[in-house]
């Protein structure tokens, strides 16, 4: 594969621009940049770029004999996915699962949106196919050839030519999918994507989405490839895949094209950094609308489950984290905080400095500060594309904004200081994104170098490095076109994976070796078909291992049992700070990567040998940098010789980007022409920003607190044992001030977050003078801040230097799979006292001065009339919660070191004050209202909301609510507070943390001994999951905001001595004054996920027969309520099944003339065909072959429609 004396073209066809790097026959490189879409001048940008470099006219053929190869990355598929412009696609799926991909895992994407917007589906029609193979390979229903053929013909006659075939358990047993594919081929479908070939991995939803993407995008990709190939006249054409490897154009598939361009950037960053001697890097690619960050420490990192444009992708892709902070990110002031992004000005109108009426952006901040000099920026603006950046408009807009901020807050920042403040926030946002791929995963980022590329990275690289404690930055001469450059440096790669899902034993390792051998042969054949030398082929075999019962795997090299176990334990210790050596390991996936390494070519030197080590600057300019105005030299990079050293502050200008060398940094030019930036003056943290509120630091601290809570959540999710926590994400993590007030939380479960502060305050009240460093407390008591017994809260105090000096608290709450009680899963439908719901844990010291009190905790879980059923699992989960808390402790300590304790404490108060003011603004426009909410059992919730406009306060009065009940629908007062907090947070139409401040302007009156303030030993299990939903709907009704949602979580529990399982089931959301309700989604106080159907069937002796949207169950109205769902489970062992639900008697209300949603229903269908109706709170013993069917309620309609008026 040598291309001597011929051209090579390396091309990145982006969404806005296409970058071309051409390797000339003499080995030199030339670059060219052009618009990706310019139909008036050329058909295709990539081909036009080649023509430009070769000096060809539009009508001249491209000389194929002169070009060795064209290597491309393209966003054609990505753009088609984002814009939903792929081919009309048919989804063929197992009967009963027509809506499985639409429902997904039932969570809503944005927790506090009343109008729930879900991603648009890619397929046009669904064909349900009669067939079924179970998780063990038994054929339960043969493939129905006749009805399948009939359905295919109907779609074919309508013009559909792309089909995605997705059958249950086909990842392991594909015979029915193969029969369906044969039929589709015979009929004439031209794009047939089959799930076990596209993504042979367990999880119906992720594999199904990936297969649909492949069918939807491959035809458009094929047309594009054919178009380019026809223009190139036989030139070898290769494309970059999302996994970072090149492949022949004929093998390029839709599922592998999503990150084609960004993957080239990762390859480029890794290759140029390795060449420069850096083997640990953070890739920092900052463009106009967003920033991509990646982690590399010797091998490419890939994600095997990714969410792209609302679609779950189950295929290997470069692990790239994107944050909405680019040069075009809009800078705005919301009355109290500076905000940067996520909205972008785009290319049109673009930043204010483009002169087209655009808003202020990060780019404009740099213009204002002098870090971007218009005289040295391409003159491409204005009607004739000959104007420079408009500095005057930027100055005027920042002057106006500065005045606005002063009038709102009294803050006296000058316009240039305002711009500097926005830049600080943008830098922190990017640093937090890098923490997610590094610090959050156990890597010490201070040991890494920052590889900066993309048009805007150079202006911020030193500042981002400082924010992370990094001291090295590398910028290649091709940094502005590094994605294109990376295409030329990439290897040909073929990847194969196969789900295994077996214990790691010697016998299973031998079986897995057979799988790896087969995958290796397939991948090698694919690579060899691309005319590569066999001597250059390398095969890498890996296994994805995980602890039994968990869902997060780590990748190890395939070797002996002992070696792989050791590798896994080391990785787990690094990532999560603990190991469980006694727990069995599971082989999740076998993976093979075959690499045909590119032949080494002579490196291009981008720098002259040292001639002029102290070049003269082009000019000197005034730049606001490091807190003040400084006279700063401007250099042209092309005149910097090897060996040149430039100390900051300085600006290094080049054709496609600008590098800012901050004070304390030194830039040097290597022999290869790289710019290496090193911090030569140790970073000194500036004096604390002070304890008076600063609108810039308010936003910085908002984001920092949120980031810490998210890192805690990541740790808990990935280290817990319970499916409830790991997969359903039924957990929450938060940080609290010294008084126990909620400061920030990751967006998890609303019912947890609003009530957890009560648990923290209980720990403070009961242990304030006895707490010591290393202590950790656990509780679930509903009368001391808990919700219901399965929700276990772990609280860790954060101590200062003095033993009794408590600085903060961190807490994590997780729904344990079982905590005892009458029934497995601890959700008994008929409990009347707390002890019947499980083991009560009230202020128990779980860790005493660093010693884990396991024996004592086990004794507690074994106690009482109904002890916990799986104590080992409880122990594993609380250990995970301790680990999550420790992550929070560690990050809070770092924050104190960076900013000072007094500042951190002050901003804990200010973020609450900011949330308080946001709620007060909502109160200014709300009206008084009241509502009576009837419940299925004949009781009621009554609420009156009174707004005091003058005092800007609200009173929420629940007087008139029914007394404490003798059933389990009692809701502790902490739940009522949580519901009020949630509702008023949803009324704030902007992103603010949900914290204690939201409740400060609200007085809540809850009558004692009512169902909203029960006394021990009242049963409460349904209060958390059911009554909480009723409270939220009551408040929305009183405020006339929206109709009722399904108003229940449809809690389904089943189990026996060996198995325990719990899930909540989605339904319809309520309609509002300008929007329809959404079907089949979780609402309000929950957002828990469902276990994937294939995982459910593999782990539990059940079969999911049906899961689909319940048509016409939403209430009619001017705006209709969302539909509920139908879920049918067949049991394969003797079990007990419990349902705990609402709205089986009273329908979810409509509002302003809208009709109510449909009632929910549940029943047992016995194996002999008889039916046993169930109430909303019921249980039954089931035998093999029995089924439970749940129909969930729809949401209420809003407003009178023509039909019901």
Provide an overview of this structure.
This protein has 1205 residues and is α+β, with helices and mostly antiparallel strands. The chain has 25 helices and 54 strands. The strands form 13 sheets. An eight-stranded mixed beta sheet has the order 19-14-13-22-23-34-33-30, sandwiched between helices.
Topology:
Layout (H helix, E strand, L loop, with lengths): L6 E7 L3 E7 L5 E7 L9 H10 L12 E8 L1 H8 L5 E6 L5 H4 L21 E5 L2 E2 L5 E3 L3 H13 L4 E5 L8 H13 L3 E4 H4 L5 H29 L4 E4 L5 E3 L11 H16 L5 E6 L4 E6 L5 E2 L2 E3 L2 E3 L3 E2 L2 E3 L5 E5 L4 E7 L17 H8 L21 H19 L5 H23 L11 E5 L7 H8 L3 E4 L6 H8 L2 E12 L2 H23 L8 E11 L6 E4 L3 H16 L8 E12 L22 E7 L2 E9 L8 E3 L2 E4 L4 E4 L3 E5 L5 E5 L15 H25 L3 H4 L4 E6 L5 E4 L4 H4 L2 H12 L8 E4 L11 E9 L6 E10 L28 E5 L2 E2 L1 H8 L9 H29 L1 H23 L5 E6 L5 E9 L4 E5 L15 H14 L15 E4 L15 H19 L11 E5 L4 E4 L29 H7 L2 E9 L13 E8 L3 E6 L20 E5 L5 E4 L2 E6 L4 E5 L14
Parallel strand pairs: 1-4, 4-11, 5-6, 5-9, 9-10, 13-22, 22-23, 29-31, 44-45
Antiparallel strand pairs: 1-2, 2-3, 7-8, 11-12, 13-14, 14-19, 15-18, 16-17, 20-21, 23-34, 24-27, 25-26, 25-27, 28-29, 30-33, 31-32, 33-34, 35-36, 35-39, 37-38, 37-40, 38-39, 40-41, 42-43, 43-44, 46-47, 46-50, 48-49, 49-54, 50-53, 51-52, 51-54
């Amino acid at each position: 594969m040598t291309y001597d004396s011929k051209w090579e073209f390396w091309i990145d066809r982006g969404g806005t621009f296409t970058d071309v790097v051409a390797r000339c026959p003499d080995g030199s490189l030339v670059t060219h940049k052009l618009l990706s879409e310019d139909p008036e001048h050329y058909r295709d940008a990539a081909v036009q770029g080649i023509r430009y470099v070769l000096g060809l006219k539009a009508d001249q053929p491209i000389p194929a004999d002169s070009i060795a190869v064209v290597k491309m990355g393209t966003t054609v598929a990505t753009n088609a996915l984002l814009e939903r412009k792929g081919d009309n696609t048919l989804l063929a799926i197992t009967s009963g699962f027509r809506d499985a991909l639409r429902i997904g895992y039932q969570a809503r994407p944005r927790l506090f949106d009343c109008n729930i917007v879900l991603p648009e589906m890619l397929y046009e029609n669904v064909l349900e196919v009669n067939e079924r193979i179970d998780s063990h390979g038994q054929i339960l229903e043969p493939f129905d050839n006749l009805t399948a053929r009939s359905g295919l013909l109907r779609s074919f006659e309508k013009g559909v030519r792309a089909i995605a075939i997705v059958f249950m358990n086909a990842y392991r047993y594909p015979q029915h999918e193969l029969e369906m594919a044969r039929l589709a081929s015979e009929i004439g479908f031209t794009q047939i994507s089959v799930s076990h070939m596209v993504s042979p991995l367990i999880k119906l939803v992720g594999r199904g989405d990936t297969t649909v993407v492949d069918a939807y995008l491959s035809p458009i990709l094929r047309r594009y490839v054919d178009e380019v190939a026809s223009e190139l006249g036989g030139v070898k054409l290769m494309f970059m895949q999302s996994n970072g490897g090149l492949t022949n154009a004929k093998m390029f598939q839709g599922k592998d094209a999503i990150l084609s361009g960004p993957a080239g950037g990762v390859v480029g960053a890794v290759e140029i950094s390795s060449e420069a001697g850096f083997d640990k890097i953070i890739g920092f690619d900052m463009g106009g609308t967003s920033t991509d960050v990646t982690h590399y420490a010797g091998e490419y990192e890939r994600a095997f489950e990714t969410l792209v444009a609302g679609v779950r992708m189950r295929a290997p892709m470069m692990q790239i984290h994107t944050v909405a902070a680019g040069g075009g990110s809009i800078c705005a002031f919301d009355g109290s905080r500076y905000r940067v992004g996520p909205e972008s000005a785009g290319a049109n109108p673009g930043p204010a400095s483009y002169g087209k009426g655009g808003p202020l952006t990060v780019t404009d901040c740099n213009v204002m500060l002098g870090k971007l000099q218009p005289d040295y920026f391409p003159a491409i603006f204005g009607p004739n594309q000959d104007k420079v950046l408009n500095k005057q408009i930027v100055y005027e807009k920042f002057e106006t904004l500065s005045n606005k901020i002063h009038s709102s807050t009294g803050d006296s920042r000058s316009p240039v200081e305002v711009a500097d403040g926005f830049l600080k926030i943008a830098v922190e946002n990017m640093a937090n994104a890098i923490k997610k791929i590094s610090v959050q995963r156990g890597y010490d980022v201070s040991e890494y170098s920052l590889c900066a590329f993309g048009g805007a990275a150079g202006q911020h690289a030193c500042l981002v490095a400082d924010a992370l404690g990094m001291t090295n930055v590398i910028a290649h001469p091709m940094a502005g076109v590094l994605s294109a450059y990376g295409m030329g440096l990439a290897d040909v790669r073929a990847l194969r994976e196969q789900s295994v899902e077996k214990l790691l034993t010697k016998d299973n390792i031998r079986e897995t070796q057979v799988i790896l051998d087969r995958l290796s042969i397939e991948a090698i054949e694919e690579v060899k078909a691309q005319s590569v030398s066999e001597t250059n082929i390398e095969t890498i075999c890996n296994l994805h291992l995980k602890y039994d019962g968990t869902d997060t795997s780590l990748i190890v090299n395939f070797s002996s049992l002992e070696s792989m176990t050791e590798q896994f334990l080391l990785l787990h210790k690094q990532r999560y700070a603990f190991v469980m050596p006694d727990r069995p390991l599971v082989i999740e996936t076998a993976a093979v990567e075959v690499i045909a390494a590119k032949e080494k070519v002579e490196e291009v030197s981008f720098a002259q040998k040292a001639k002029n080590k102290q070049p003269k600057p082009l000019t000197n300019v005034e730049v606001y940098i490091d807190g003040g105005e400084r006279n700063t030299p401007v250099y042209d990079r092309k005149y910097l010789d090897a060996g040149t050293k430039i100390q900051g502050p300085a600006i290094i200008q080049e054709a496609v980007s600008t590098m800012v060398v901050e004070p304390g940094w030194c830039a040097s030019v290597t022999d290869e022409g790289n710019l290496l930036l090193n911090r030569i003056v140790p970073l000194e943290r500036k004096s604390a920003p002070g304890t008076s509120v600063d609108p810039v630091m308010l936003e910085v601290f908002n984001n920092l607190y949120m980031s810490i809570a998210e890192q805690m959540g990541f740790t808990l999710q990935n280290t817990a044992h319970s499916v409830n926590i790991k997969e359903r994400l039924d957990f929450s993590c938060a940080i609290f001030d010294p008084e126990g007030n909620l400061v920030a939380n990751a967006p998890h479960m609303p019912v947890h977050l609003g009530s957890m502060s009560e648990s923290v305050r209980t720990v403070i009240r009961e242990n304030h003078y006895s707490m010591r460093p290393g202590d950790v407390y656990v509780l679930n008591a509903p009368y001391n801040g808990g919700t219901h017994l399965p929700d276990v809260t772990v609280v860790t105090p954060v101590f200062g230097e003095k033993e009794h000096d408590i600085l903060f608290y961190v807490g994590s709450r997780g729904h344990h799979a079982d905590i005892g009680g009458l029934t497995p899963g601890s959700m008994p439908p008929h409990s009347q006292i707390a002890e019947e719901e499980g083991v009560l844990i009230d202020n128990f010291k779980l860790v005493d001065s660093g010693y884990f009190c396991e024996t004592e905790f086990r004794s507690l879980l074994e106690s009482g009339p109904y002890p916990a059923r799986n104590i080992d699992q409880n122990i594993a989960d609380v250990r995970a919660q301790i680990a999550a808390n420790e992550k929070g402790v560690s990050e809070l300590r770092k924050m104190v070191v960076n900013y000072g304790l007094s500042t951190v404490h002050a901003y804990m108060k200010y973020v609450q004050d900011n949330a308080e003011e946001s709620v007060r603004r909502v109160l200014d426009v709300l009206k008084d209202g009241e509502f009576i909410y009837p419940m299925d059992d004949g009781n009621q919730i009554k609420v009156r909301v009174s707004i005091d406009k003058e005092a800007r306060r609200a009173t929420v009065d629940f007087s008139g609510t029914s007394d404490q009940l003798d059933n389990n629908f009692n809701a502790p007062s902490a739940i009522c507070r949580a519901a009020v907090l949630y509702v008023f947070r949803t009324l704030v139409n902007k992103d603010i943390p949900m914290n204690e401040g939201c409740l400060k302007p609200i007085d809540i009156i809850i009558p004692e001994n009512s169902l909203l303030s029960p006394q021990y030993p009242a049963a409460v299990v349904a209060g958390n999951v059911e009554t909480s939903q009723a409270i939220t709907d009551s408040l929305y009704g009183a405020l006339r905001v929206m109709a009722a949602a399904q108003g229940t979580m449809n809690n389904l529990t089943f189990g026996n001595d060996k198995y325990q399982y719990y899930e909540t089931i989605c339904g319809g959301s309520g309609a509002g004054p300008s929007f329809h309700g959404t079907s089949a989604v979780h609402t309000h106080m929950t957002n828990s996920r469902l276990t994937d159907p294939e995982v459910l069937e593999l782990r539990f002796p059940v079969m999911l027969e049906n899961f689909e949207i319940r048509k016409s169950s939403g209430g009619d109205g001017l705006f209709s309520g969302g539909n509920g769902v139908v879920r049918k489970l067949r049991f394969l062992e003797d079990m007990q099944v419990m349902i705990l639900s609402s709205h089986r008697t009273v329908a979810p209300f409509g509002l302003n003339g809208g009709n109510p949603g449909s009632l929910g229903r549940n029943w047992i269908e016995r194996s002999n065909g008889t039916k046993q109706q169930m109430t909303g709170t019921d249980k039954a013993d089931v035998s093999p072959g029995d089924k439970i069917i749940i129909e969930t309620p729809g949401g209420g309609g809003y407003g009178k429609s023509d039909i019901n008026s």
